[in-house]
Structures are given as C-alpha cells and as structure tokens.
Specification:
Helices cover about 45% and strands about 20% of the residues. By secondary structure, it is α+β, with helices and mostly antiparallel strands. The chain has three domains: about 350 residues, Uncharacterised protein PF07063, DUF1338 (2,3-Dihydroxybiphenyl 1,2-Dioxygenase, domain 1); about 50 residues; about 60 residues, no CATH class. It is an enzyme of class 1 (oxidoreductase).
Length: about 475
C-alpha cells in the first residue's frame, strides 16, 4: 500500500489550497501568473545569480498562507493539522503592538524547520489568534458574548483531527487516508456559504474588521495566499498595468543596490466578495464583505539578532526622517538613502560584521598551499577555501504584517489605548497550544553552526571556526 510522507502531504495540500483559492479569488490567479512571468524574466536576465536565495523550482512553487482563529483551543487544533504536514510553530508576533489601527491578534507561523524539508516544499501558514481578553478592544460584555460565540463553533471536524494525529505519529498516511485528510483539510479553509449574522458581524466590525472576520462567522477560511517573486517592484508595476488595485506601498526593507534582507511584501486590495447575510428578522439577503486579498512576497537573507536590531534601528530612522522631511522626498526614497548610509553593501560585509546568517562548505578545487588552514571564516572565504551561501529568511515581520492588514482595512476600528493591554508572549502561546513555539533565530544559528562544524571536520581544524 503506497504511503504519502509528510512533505508529500504538505506539497499536495499547498497545491490544492492554491487551486481552491484561485477559484474563490480569481485575482489571485492573475497574481500567480504575473509572479511566474517576472521570475522567468529575472532568471533569463540574471542566470544563476537569480537562484542564490533558492532554486527557481522552489521559488515558483513557494506559497505562504494566512488564516485566523479565535481561541487557544482552535489554535491547538490548527497545530495538529499542520503537524501532520511536518510544520511547526515558529516565532511569536504581536500585531496589537505593531499596528496603529485595531488589529487585536497575536500570531505564529507554522512551517518546516529542517533544511531538507524546506527545500522539498517550504509551505508556511501565518496563523493569527484573536485576543478577546484585551480590554483595549473588548469591554467585559462584548468579551463574554464573543467568547461564548467562539466556544460554540467547530472549525475542524473530528475525523480531520484524528487523521492529522495519525499522520504525525506515522510520519505520513496510506494513500486512501491521505486523500481523505487532504479533502477535509482543504475543505476546512474554504469560504463557507452559511449566512453571516449581519448585526453581530457589524458589532465586531466597529471594534476591528479583523475581529469581525474571525469572530463574526462560524467558520474560518484562507485569508490570503502568497506566491514568492524575485522582483517585487517589477511585479507591482505589472499588476498595476493590468488594472489590479495594489496597496500604496511595498512593506519591509527598501529596494536598493545592496543585498536583499528579510522580507518585502505587498498585496492587491481586499475585494468585495458576495456573502449571504442574515438580518435581525431572520431574512437572508445578499451582502458583501471585504476581508480577503492577494499578497506577494520577495524573500531575502536571514539577519542575526544584531542584524535585526540594526534593521529596526534603520526603520525608526526612516520614520524620523520622513516626519521632518522638507525636501518632498518620498518615504521610499528616504528609506533607500538611510539603507545606503548604514546597511552593509555586500554579503561579505554582512557576514564579517555578524549581521546575517550563512551556510558554509569547502570549495571544490580549493587552494593547496603549504600554509596553515586559516581559522577565521572570513579569511577562509576570502582565500577561496570555503564558499558562503546566504540563509533564506523563512519567517515574518510584525510591522510588515500589520501594515498589510491595515492597508486592506476600511476603517481603523476602536482602540482604548489608556487601558492596560493583556500580556501574551511565546511562552504563553506554547502553553496554550501544547507545543513549543520555536525561536527562529535559534533555528538559523543552528543551521549556520552545523555547516561550520562540517567545514572544520573536512579541513581538519581543531575546535570551532569563528
């Protein structure tokens, strides 16, 4: 009996989810088509350099999804479904603090963590959970109503969760069970035809459109699905030429002459989708909700903690210079200027200053001089003994994610900032879902250290390289 391994389940789920979302949101298919066109053009123009941060087959197939749930129980169930696909919770993101408008959610991302698994299929899902206990957004009465509503719904059928647990334990499923699992898993994220209680939805929408999207309906759905592109600025231009309304900016680092780092994201604006609405007198009428959009991303090099601190410092400097700008320069122009003044302009400088993660391997045909093996990684690279490859950033940026959310909201909602917010962190989230939320920096550092250990062994270097 043939068995589908976890990575094969993951690849099949990502492909089927993409097909389903394309049916539901046709503009997403346009986004995928334009992304592929841009990637092919970049590959023709740049050759092997275009694949420095991932093979073209990986980049073309790559997707990240986004979903939203309401409670720790629901998040725990999501974790079980994604565990079946070899995906683990990585990183803690507090969008309440990153957003200027009302976005009452905390998030994590489920993804593969092993390098080989990422190479096979790097599908990841940014998963947000509502925070009804935060008094800045929900007064006691609304919180009680919301929690009762969330407790009464079932997002994931028991059969799906049983199959998910079996796939996790057995690291795969027999073909017939795999087919059933995929059917149920994709179905759980389809847009439900069930009528939406208009009054309840509008009550939550006055607080936050995101809260209404999560707690105003009796199901969940894929909120956006994101292809990866090699030139996001060119994609933005081509999508606009095709008449697709894009959000105002590309979130994340600016376009500049130096290395691409972390993550750049943009999207087309949320579309008004027809939904059945139930009125207070029980009638079902036609309505529309504007909550889903099409996002696209360009991934760069993973930064170390020191590199990330520099990135955050530069963002603050861009904010400061944009506020007092008198030249009429755009924010993008100011950001480019800040980057060119303060960010290392080459991968070699990023590595030498300990600002980014790289993997290392002994170069074929390395020099065979009579001198001792250099004990400095930078010297090994400089003299051609070792080659460095940048580690791709596999995670997300809270401010960028919040910026995408905000750009697709019709109003800022309501936020009582004078109230003390409820505390959440990675430890709380780990306890809530019953599995450790992994530290992305630790994962990148382990990958770099493993590669250096291999180099040291091959070159016969005692101790560790630095």
């Amino acid at each position: 009996m043939s068995t589908l391994s976890q990575w094969q389940l993951r690849a099949a789920f990502a492909a089927r989810l993409s097909k389903m979302y394309g049916r539901e949101v046709p503009a997403y298919t346009t986004l995928v088509d334009v992304s592929q066109e841009v990637n092919e053009d970049v590959l023709r123009a740049q050759g092997a350099d275009a694949e420095r941060l991932g093979s073209i087959s990986r980049v073309t197939a790559e997707r990240h999804g986004a979903i939203r749930v309401g409670t720790p129980r629901e998040l725990g169930q999501v974790a079980r479904v994604f565990a079946a696909l070899g995906m683990h919770p990585v990183g803690f993101y507090d969008l309440r603090e990153a957003a200027a408008s009302a976005v009452p959610v905390v998030s994590t991302a489920f993804r593969p963590v092993d390098g080989d698994e990422l190479a096979r299929n790097p599908f990841r899902v940014f998963t947000s959970m509502l925070t009804p206990a935060d008094p800045r957004f929900f007064d006691p009465g609304l919180r009680a109503r919301l929690e009762n509503f969330l407790a009464s719904r079932e997002l994931f059928p028991p059969e799906l969760l049983t199959l998910a647990d079996r796939a996790t334990a057995d690291r795969g499923l027999p073909h017939h069970e795999a087919e059933r699992f995929l059917e149920l898993a994709v179905g759980a994220f389809e847009l439900s035809p069930e009528p939406v209680d208009r009054t309840w939805y509008e009550t939550l929408e006055r607080v936050s459109a995101v809260a209404a999207d999560i707690g105003g309906v009796r199901s969940t759905h894929i909120n956006h699905l994101t292809p990866r592109v090699l030139d996001i600025d060119e994609l933005y231009r081509r999508m606009t030429e095709r008449g697709i309304e894009m959000i105002d900016t590309i979130q994340g680092p600016p376009a500049w002459r130096g290395p691409d780092v972390l993550l750049r994201q943009t999207s087309f604006r949320a579309l008004a989708e027809p939904r059945a609405m139930r009125t207070p007198d029980g009638d079902v009428v036609s309505g529309a909700l504007r909550v889903r959009f099409g996002e696209v991303e360009a991934r760069g090099i993973a930064l170390t903690r020191a590199g990330r601190a520099l990135y955050d410092k530069l963002l603050a400097l861009v904010d400061e210079e944009s506020t007092r700008a008198e030249s009429g320069a755009s924010r993008a122009e100011i950001a480019r200027s800040v980057w060119e003044r303060h960010m290392p302009a080459t991968e070699e400088e990023l590595a030498a200053q300990g600002l980014a993660y790289f993997t290392y391997q002994v170069a074929a045909g390395r020099p065979r001089d009579d001198g001792p093996v250099p004990e400095s990684v930078s010297e090994l690279v400089r003299r051609g003994w070792v080659r460095a490859a940048p580690v791709v950033y596999e995670d997300f940026l809270p401010r960028s994610a919040a910026g995408i959310f905000q750009s697709n909201l019709s109003s800022e909602g309501t936020r009582h900032s004078e109230q003390q917010g409820t505390a959440y962190d990675a430890g709380w989230l780990s306890d809530a879902i019953g599995r450790e939320v992994l530290d992305p920096f630790a994962l990148y550092e382990q990958e770099q250290k493993r590669s250096l250990a291999r180099v040291a062994r091959e070159l016969g270097v005692d101790g560790s390289l630095s």
